[in-house]
Prior knowledge:
By secondary structure, the chain is α+β, with helices and mostly antiparallel strands. It is about 40% helix and about 15% strand.
Amino acid sequence: MKISDLQFTDEMKDNAWRGHSVETPSDxxxxxxxxxxxxxxxxxxxxVKIEYDETCKVYRVPAFAENRKRYSExxxxxxxxxxxx
Length: 85
């Protein structure tokens, strides 16, 4: 499945918090709840392949796995050095 295959309910279109949660290359997630937010995501990251993680109820992006791992490691090192809040 790809980002462009996501479908939206009327509730999602009316409530920004009722969309699909999709990974980004960092440790953040993007809520995609309408065509505008989907197009913004694809403009930024492309029409990437996604896989639904039933346990966490989020869409994983296999293409971002290496970037997310690197980002998390850098963040961990930063927190060990400077502390985290």
